From TrEMBL, chains A, B, C:
Catalyzes the phosphorylation of the hydroxyl group of 4-methyl-5-beta-hydroxyethylthiazole (THZ). Pfam families: HK. This is Hydroxyethylthiazole kinase. ATP binds at R117, S163. It comes from the Bacteria. CDD domains: THZ_kinase. The lineage of its organism: Bacteria, Bacillati, Bacillota, Bacilli, Lactobacillales.
Length: 264, 264, 264
């Protein structure tokens, strides 16, 4: 796991263009900024080309999709493909809402994404595997998470990050499992959205190897969250959210290397 | 006051579908999530039916209404009525902005809401009582708050929560007054929005008795805020907001029962 | 520097109507509220006249502009001009995105603004000075910041606040430089948006002297941030953001007078 990418990211300060979930957008912007990237959010298709051009990567989040935003995502996705800019796609709640699944499938047919980041319920829905998702939450299912993630990656020819207590990262063949984390991520809305945007930030600086970029992003967020949670004496989701922004700025490669737990 | 509903809520983890105020949406989502509910927000009418179907309750917030969002609320409200899903309605700033009062009245004529939650200026405006509201704030007036809340409840055939230093909950006949709270709620934007969504969460698990659900929600939020404020040595609205999310997750029935101050 | 305006603001509790950047809107609302103003946000043109009428000042932020929002800003700007209500204009990212520069120029031709608040890259772009802006960040350039701010103020016949490590406030002739601040402002997304809205709050209570209002706003925010940063033992952007909201409520004229560092 090439954790040196964290230092590279801080040196390069890549611009990440987010078509965002308005519920979590401030937290995502602050998380990107604290880590060392430069966030920009937009809801206007007329500036899509300018923003893709200045961005190192794009993150498309379905969290609060509208027909207008879907049209914007189509344009942003196509331009990003033309410019070979990495695209991270976050299919929020496609496991629970049929309309969202249809939108996600249409967008995935419209342009090629680099990474899909979702929870088990969302990745299972995209892979066509039966699963009981619950709203924006992962829900419960009996499937093999690695098999589901691989099926999704193979179907859409991209890297998949299936996040949860263990994060599964796969390009359809290789698999990395990241075991770091804390249950507090589930108690803070937008942890998944932030991971998607951090994957985009790492993909911006490691655009030829998005599998590695995704794995490093997962270790950085899960590890940082674990370090923050270890300092708490009770489950305090508000304090955790503040501490996570602090620590994303302060965390070092060395700290992460000492606690990183993953199988490659 | 049936505070055991808090335990029921945490066991059932109801989905609350919010047509949200974009100013406070992240805080509301985190508050719902911290307490033990599952928030989902949407701005797209095409997924209205799916979301009402998976939700235990709906919360419609006028805080940042647009013509598009008003049309969405009409559809969501009608579908929720068809499915007998409880609706909480938050008429933000109807006391200060004539356009909003008209929109609120039109929506209230379009479908039947279960609970209206607003401050004194907002409830007075809906009830047709003269009052000096100020922007999003309650403003000042000389009326009898209980009479105003009752008049509003009788006019719209629903439960009313008139929140303020004392929360008044009424179904038009019965009245509960909740005396818990802290002035810090006024210093944190979105306290009212959060209360509306918490009322929806309790209505989701106690759909046959929304009067009780609303009263319990008021005690839970006011009591939790009071517990947080009691730990502060100065009026720190930022720290209060973080502590409120923490404590919504940690607070117990027993703690609330010990401090609850209400008249039924 | 007339810091007594802070006490006046808290006494008058002016309503500030924001056409907002959805990324930072909650933080801006809480900052205004904590300081002692009353925020209201709207995205609907149909209520523009009502909101301008009740507001003491208007803040127009291009941060997440859409064609719909641009049309709303046109209407709000014209009505504010008719009512002689101060307008603060925040040209987010006009230095990096040509489309935004065009929109900003069109709006500035449409109505007269009272104050423009931007970073070096944004003010340089409006002034027509060559500069290397980077996304939402100031970027780097070799120009003289005072000359750039003056040129922008003269071109648009308004007060300009060019914010950064040193804030430059000018009406095109007079210049105030505010040297307070902390690097943590750069680590927290939305510090500039908050400054713009605080300028509007002070302009609401000092509408005949917006140059003074802007200078006081700059000292209040930069000074408050400095006081918060002085209490931190490491660069913690999350903790800083919470502390800033706390301290905006608690800070006194006397505290600010003791640390204020400016040239007039």
């Amino acid at each position: 796991m090439n954790l040196e990418l964290l230092t590279t990211l801080r040196q390069q300060n890549p611009i990440v263009f987010n078509v965002a979930n308005f519920v979590t957008v401030q937290d995502v912007a602050n998380g990107l900024n604290a880590l060392g990237a430069s966030p920009i959010m937009s809801a206007e298709v007329a500036e899509a080309e300018s923003l893709v051009t200045i961005a190192g990567a794009v993150c498309l989040n379905l969290g609060t999709l509208t027909t207008r935003q879907i049209a914007q995502m189509q344009t942003v996705g196509r331009i990003a493909n033309q410019q070979a800019t990495p695209i991270v796609f976050d299919p929020v709640a496609v496991g629970a809402v049929p309309y969202r699944l249809q939108v996600a499938q249409d967008l995935l047919a419209d342009f090629q994404v680099t990474v899909i980041r979702g929870n088990a319920g969302e990745i299972a829905a995209l892979a066509g595997v039966d699963w009981q998702a619950k709203g924006i939450d992962a829900g419960t299912g009996g499937g093999d998470l690695i098999a589901i993630a691989k099926a999704c990656a193979q179907k859409y020819h991209c890297v998949v990050v299936l996040s949860g207590p263990t994060d599964v990262i796969t390009d359809g063949i290789r698999v990395t499992q990241v075991h770091n984390g804390t249950e507090l991520f589930q108690l803070h809305v937008g942890s998944g959205d932030l991971l998607s945007s951090l994957v985009a930030a790492f993909a911006a600086i490691e655009s030829t190897d998005s599998y590695t970029a995704a794995g490093v992003a997962a270790v950085v967020l899960a590890g940082t969250g674990e370090l923050v949670a270890d300092q708490l004496t009770a489950e305090r989701p508000g304090t955790f959210a503040v501490g996570l922004i602090d620590k994303l700025h302060l965390v070092t490669e060395k700290e992460l290397a000492q606690i990183a737990k993953y199988d490659e």
